[in-house]
Amino acid sequence: MTTRAQLQKSPIVVVGPTACGKSAFALEIARRVRGVELLSIDSMQVYRKMNIGTAKPTIEEQLETPHHLIDLVEPSESFTLVDFQQAHDSVRRDIEERDGVPVLVGGTGLYVRAIVDRLTPPPRFTQIASQLDEEHDTEALHKRLKELDPVGAARMENTNRRRIIRALEVSIGTGEPFSSFGPGLDSYPDVPYRIVGIEIDRSELDERIRQRYEDQIAAGFLEEVRSLTETELSTTAGQALGYKELLAHIHGETSFADALDLAIQRTKRFARRQQRWFKRDPRVEWVPSDQLGTVINEISS
Asked: Using the 8-state DSSP alphabet, how is residue 57 labeled?
């Protein structure tokens, strides 16, 4: 049995790969426990006008349960990890003052760690970052990162421009490998949270990802992306799954079928990386996706 006071003292953090059912699980907790408010620990849901593709809670879900840390900035605006931490801390203080129960829902692994473990990000060197961004060959930037920080380079795709530039920015600006600033990522101290991970079979997850894209397209995802064509997306927003591929189709660079297939494959790879990230954390309590009802009953009893 879990008391409401325990949920406040040791909030639940729901983690797992994209499309595994985190949001539905958290919503069910909110329906069963008085005063629950949901916090999205997601680097993409902070952007306004990017609703369908980032799988934001619907208007009906937001009316049913308070949701936080979504729709914070325009897609053209930069929003750093530090900005996110500050926004989270402000929301948490408000919830505590209302005697509410926070439940965190996290798909962005680094953001979850930053909140749960209070990580301090490396310093920023904006001039260096701007200079690096002038280099249009992302693969060349990744090769440069391999020379400066082979460990860090091995941890990211050679197409992830945002992360590569950030790693180079820190490596060049500090003279130290970007990966050396992550000793906190390799240790897992006790924290005042209960981290629940949703475990799901790979084939089932792949099917959910495919089906979710079909549902999103039917809901107007392509039209949503088309509405953003006049907006200069920030580096982070421009990396959002599905948006990049559909924008390429809208600009006549590829067919719709190829763009959709590329988005699905990229999302599957992203889900694998999420699973590996969260599996490294021994504090995560893994629950099979078909047994979540047992956890909900235990929490709400």
From this structure: P
pLDDT in tens, 209-252: 999 999 999 999 999 999 999 999 998 999 999 999 999 999 99
8 A C-beta contact, residue 47 and residue 73:
yes
pLDDT digits (tens, 9 = 90+) for 158-171: 988 989 999 999 99
Order of strands across the sheet that contains 101-106: 67-68, 36-41, 101-106, 12-15, 194-199, 285-288
CATH 3.40.50.300 is right for the domain spanning 4-119+191-300: yes
Q: Which of 102, 85, 89, 17 is nearest to 55 (CA)?
A: 17
Tally of CB atoms within 10 A around 176: 14
In this prediction, residues 79-102 reach a mean pLDDT of 96
Residue 298: band (very low, low, confident or very high) from pLDDT cuts 50, 70, 90: very high
Please, are residues 274 and 17 in contact by the beta-carbon 8 Å criterion? yes
pLDDT in tens, 275-286: 999 999 999 999
CATH architecture of 126-181: Orthogonal Bundle (1.10)
How far is CA 277 from each of CA 155, 229, 264, rounded to the nearest angstrom? 10, 33, 20
Contact between residue 246 and residue 238 where contact means Cβ atoms under 8 Å apart: no
Bridge-partner residues for 102, per DSSP? 37
Confirm if 179 and 135 have CB atoms less than 8 A apart. Answer: no
Domain ranges for the chain, please list them: 4-119+191-300, 126-181
- Structure confidence at residue 125 (pLDDT): 92
